[in-house]
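Q: What does the predicted 3D structure of Iron-sulfur cluster assembly protein look like?
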Amino acid sequence: MSTPEPTDGAGSEGPDRAAVRDRLDRVTDPELDRSIVELEYVDAIEVDGDRVTVRFTLPTAWCSPAFAWMMAIDARDEVETLPNVADARIVLREHMHEREITRGVNQRLSFAEAFPDADGDVAAVRVELDRKARIARQYDAIEALLEAGLGPGTIVDLTVADLDRPADRAAVSAADDDAERIPIAVQGEAVVVPVPAVPLDRYLEKARTTGVVSDSDDVLFRTPEGDPIDAGSFDLVHRRGRLAKVNMSSQGGICDGLREARERRFEEAGDD
């Protein structure tokens, strides 16, 4: 399950597998906020001209149908953003609802149409999972800022514009690694502090997609409810972020264990 199978797409005018894989890398398991490529869910990428088929397997057969549905929909939509893809077909394997999900996603049905007995759609579920992912990513971003030496009073006043990379404050790399850092000006521009870019960029992406920030002068960090943070409640909000991060990491560890156990069973069955 960990190594996508090769395809014979050579000679077609469709995308190469690397381009498809790059798009799939943007799809996350909504419960874990981690890429389905990183999690090794993707079994196969098959290219036939401008048609792409993606086969994927989740850690267990009883993973939430709503979560599986969201990953399948997101995978289809991401692959179809490629200019040379006319149609993306998504196949879920080894899942208790693989038939309903594969049929529903590829026939462009809604979740309610694919699961007529379900209580409601997945939109509300997605909103709540995105909120938890934003809180966890905010925890990582604030940890990076604290480690760089910024204090709570400065952090709660940062705006989206403070993460810009103007030409006069170009991104830099530390001497001990090649990781990009964002130079953040503090103390009235008198001091510039380089902060690792990855956690800040990941947080900003989720903050934008969840709608808590939109303009450059919006305050960057928010409470779980989406409000600006006052300095007096900084520690409480940050602890709530840590709790979200720990819960997500713990669930990720469980899923990793289930996936590894499942792979071992498949390998042992193949040896019989």
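A (community wiki): The structure tokens above were generated from the sequence. Residues 6-11 have pLDDT under 50 and may be disordered. The chain is about 45% helix and 15% strand.
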